[in-house]
Structure formats: structure tokens, C-alpha cells
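I am still learning, so would you mind making up any protein sequence you like and the C-alpha cells describing how it folds?
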Amino acid sequence: MSDDVATDEAEDAAEETEPELVVETRYGAVVTTSRGATVLLVERDQYLDVVRAARDDGFVLCADLTAVDYLEHPTREVGAGLEPERFELVVNLFDPAARRRIRLRIQVPGDDPTVPSIYSLFPGADAPEREVLDMFGITFDGHPDPTRILMPEDWSGHPLRKDFSQGRIPVQFKSATNVR
């Protein structure tokens, strides 16, 4: 058995024995660790400060930025005493030198879907922030180009919101009388 395989098996065994929830504080945010993933539950007003602190700590790559609409689950549990909101912004940061990653979860209210832009810290967040604006209607204060990126400029609404009408396309089929 090679050393790499033995190391992978040891890591898998450690993950299996790891407790489901370990809570600490990092960058001023509450940290939960579940199944090997480090998740920071971030207050919306602390979001930019937490991202800046993480970047300064080596998390130099914003690997992903997206959102979730929890319209149908208003009583879900977020953790760390945070109130669940309609939207949740999810940001994945990566530290390539140390091979570590963290996920940030930010609660965004439906009646004020606005968060600060992290474009100044991660210029690669330009397109993902525009996609979230386009699909969910969450605006990013300080973004240099807050225009639609996926939908036409004259499109009304945000297609990934749970209350967005799916619409209909009429389909007509020919009669199947000539089938053998």
C-alpha cells in the first residue's frame, strides 16, 4: 500500500470520527465544521471585514460565489444564533499554498437584498456577483458594473427566485393515427 493511499484512508477515518459540529470563532465569524468542511456563519454587516481577514490569512482565491433562495423554508436553522433570512449568499474561498478552503454563509433579507461587493478584494468575483444579481436580485454595493450578465437587459425579474413564474410554452403534437 502506498503512502498516499494510507494517508487518504487515515484522513477518511478521521473525518468519520470527527464530531458533527465544532464551534469556534475565526475572523470575527462563527465557525462550524461538519463532515470536513469549514463553514463560517457571517453577519451581513461583517461580510467584507471577514473576507478581507480571510484573504490576508492566505485565502487568495474566490473559487465560487452563489446564492440560495429559501422562500419555502422560513423556519430553517442557520446556527450560531443567526436569524434565517430568505436568501443566503455562499462564498467559497481557497488557500492554494496551504491547501485549505472555507465556505462563508451570509444571510440576506428578502426585503433588503443587498451586500457589499468583494470585487475590490477578489476581481474574479466580478462575474459571479453579476450572476447572483441577475438570477436572484441580490445587489452588491460597490460593484463596478452592476448590469445583467445572463439575461437580456430588458428582462423583468430574477429567474432563480422561488416565486418567479416559470411560464408556459404551448406545444402542439400531431395526431398519432399513422403509427404502425
